[in-house]
Amino acid sequence: MAVAALEQEILSMRKRRQLYSLMGILLVAAVLVSGYSKSNEMNSGGFLQGLSKFFDYPGEIVVEAWQAGPAFFGLIIQYVPAMLETLNIAGVATLLGGAMAVILAMASTRNVDSWGPLIPVVRRMMDIMRAFPELIIALFLIFVLGSSPVPAMIAVAFHTAGALGKLFSEVNENIDRKPIEGLSACGASWLQRIRFAVMPQVAPNYLSYFLLRLEINVRASAILGFVGAGGIGQELRRTIGWGKGAGDETAAIFVLLFLTIMLIDQVSSFLRGKLVGASRAH
Amino acid sequence: MAIDTLNEPVFNRDMVFRNVRRRAWITVGAPLAILAYLTYTWFAFNVPNLLAKAQPERAAILATDSVAYKVHVTKFLRRDIMEVAIEGERRATYSQEDLPEWVEVDGTDAVIDLGEGYGVTIAGKVMEFTVPDYGTIKVTATNSGVETELPAGPVPDWLKDNPKKLDARPTLDRRVQVTRTKIEVHNYFGGWENFWFPFHSELHGMSFSQLWAIALSNERLDPNRSNMSLIMHDFLENPDWQHGEVFVALFETIMMAVLGTITAALFGLPLAFLAARNFTPSRFLRFGTRRLFDFLRGIDMLIWSLIFIRAFGLGPLTGALAIAFTDTGSLGKLFSEALENIDNKQVEGVRATGASQIQRYRFGVIPQILPVFVSQVLYYLESNTRSATVIGALGAGGIGLMLVETMKTSRDWENTSYIIILTIVVVIVMDQTSSWLRRKLIEGR
Q1: What is the Cα–Cα distance from A113 to A180, expressed in whole angstroms?
Q2: Can you give the pLDDT at residue A282?
Q3: Hey, of B41, B317, B410, which one would you mutate to test binding to chain A, going by the most A CBs within 10 A of its CB?
Q4: Which residues are the signal sequence here (chain A) (predicted)?
Q5: Residue B432: which of B385, B395, B397, B382 has the closest Cα?
Q6: In the sheet where B174-178 sits, what is the strand order?
Q7: CA A161/CA A132 separation, integer angstroms
Q8: What are the phi and psi torsion angles at A79 (to 5°)?
């Protein structure tokens, strides 16, 4: 009897699950189909006409780059300073945002004895900082400060502080409290406990997230350049604005951006593997 | 060297010293290096020059303008007419019988009370502006420019006086401009004007309960349509705020993020099987798929959007495809890592029951990676909402482009702040929804 009831229950649960899965899949399919047809309608160029033109533009710039011959490499070199500026935007933003994030994380985790009343306040603050799209802050600051890399840097740093702060405080939540208690038994102050009990435990994970963020920020600063924040994005906007004939320059920027992003991705994933691997071994 | 150290005891004196010294170097060196880098960028970004050129007053103007609106009292000298209009817009002009009480118009002359002792009188081509603690500024418009008589004493900062134009703004909320063609007085008020309905709509200035009564009543204000649709129409088609267009743009942005992320997930998952060591024995295929992921990710959203804008023009489709291409790479890489870390025991258990290949994947593999799949897709959905605003600004449309355009005109900052607030609300809502779904689906609570 009991077994039969159990079987009934399991079967009905399975049915319900299958129903939910089916509904989920149907929902996703409906969103996809209706979304694509709707957006195809809203787009100024349709999908089918666009498909035939899809390779036109890449083809055009590849041909122009090919015609440029060896001078193409000169063009790439020519844009290195602009790329460097974008990297600097990302670098400074990640450093400043990361430093800010450490402070925010230390102020918002119960596990590291943050001051209680501050915790919810700082958490909400980080949520808001994360929610602000970089574009909005960048455009606002460009309006006030003029076209320069600094607005982009501040915008990216602001967002980074919120995003990294959340990840850092999650790391803080998972640390071992024994070293903290040991130090407080010796009469260590809060700062000393953070420095000697918390930091050594979290440093590898912090650094790993930091590098991941650097990767993301390089992309973000390249894009922000396009709305007037300097760096490679601005150069790209200029060469694209020239239209036909500047395809070789555009191609040079594309190649440079691609190579840089790949390089940073590879280096950062290698370093992250080492960092997290090292912490795992101990 | 490395082999030697293996045989030695772990703690030897030299090694400890070496480690301590290395630590000391890092403790001193890392902050110094960071400081040096920041100093270098300080000059590379040309911050001193930037600080010199910054225009903080623009921030003040922006802040005032985004929470206030102004009413223009304008006298057009050529046509000899007087007009009172909100933001100087023709479609928000007060009729002569129904002027605000602080303006008294007599034919084409006017007496304007700007409050707190500030006052303007306009008579013919002469304007007198009374400023407490300063005196009366008398300006006469001539055929070639303006003639100004200032009170004795030094000329204050808020007064810009040249032969072509006089511009006086003694406080943030009072401004007077005179040129040879017109005399213009701005009076600022707090709030967003005409936010709900256009100035000349019958519904303008009604309270919520009045609107509710009208919506439910049978007497049609406009015989051609029901009151409910009239209210909707007047609200959405409000020419100052363009609610309808803003909502469409927001919808486009959300659509870009949702479509892009789902598409990326659907293409990323099968490709991830091809890139995972334990599912694809062929080294060649694996290598190819991984490089494809790297390629898609490396090209970056910026370049993909530019290519797609060329091919497909403006619109949500462009943004969705740009997001889909980039994130197929990112998600594919993440999924393939998750696939490589699965526990093989479950697969073998399913195989022991005589399951076919597809059943093994369905019941042995998918349940293991589903949490990773769902949580990563939701994370990307959230961050793509933010990316979609930026892609829009590059020219793909949606709320990003709208934001850039309203900022470029830099006239109606209240519209800009309206769009900014809506964008942030949408991002926060997406963020909350995705974390709610994540909790619901993965932790089951």
Answers
A1: 9
A2: 33
A3: B317
A4: none
A5: B382
A6: B81-86, B68-76, B182-190, B174-178, B166-171, B159-161
A7: 11
A8: -95, 5
Number of H helices, E strands in chain A: 13, 0
* Cβ contact B389:B401 at 8 Å: no
Minimal Cβ distance to B313: which of A45, A134, A145: A45
**Pair of tokens at residue B202:** 């019958």
Is residue B56 domain-resident?
A: no
Residue in A86, A216, A138, A256 with CA at minimum distance from that of residue B400: A138
DSSP category for residue B150: P
The answer to whether A31 contacts B55, with C-beta atoms less than 8 Å apart, is no
Burial of B161 (0-12, 13-18, 19+ CB in 10 A): middle
Question: Measured between CB atoms, which of B252, B262, B298 is closest to A258?
Answer: B298
As for the ipTM of the complex, it is 0.84
Which positions 100-129 of B are in contact with A (Cβ < 8 Å)? none
Write out the two tokens for A196: 């000697």
CATH superfamily of A69-281: MetI-like (1.10.3720.10)
Picking from A104, A204, A87, the residue whose alpha carbon sits closest to that of residue A160 is: A104
Say yes or no: B386 contacts chain A, CB-CB below 8 A: yes
Task: Residue count of chain A, please give it.
Answer: 282
Average pLDDT along chain B: 82
Radius of gyration from C-alpha coordinates of chain B: 33
Same domain? B271 vs B310: yes
Cα–Cα distance, B159 to B174 (Å, whole number): 12
Q: Are A179 and A197 in contact (CB under 8 A)?
A: yes
For residue B399, tell me if it sits in a domain. Answer: yes
A223 vs B302: CB contact, 8 Å cut-off? yes
Q: What is the pLDDT of residue B439?
A: 84
Q: Are residues B6 and B152 in the same domain?
A: no
Average pLDDT over residues B205-214: 72
CA angle B162, B165, B166 (to 5 degrees): 85
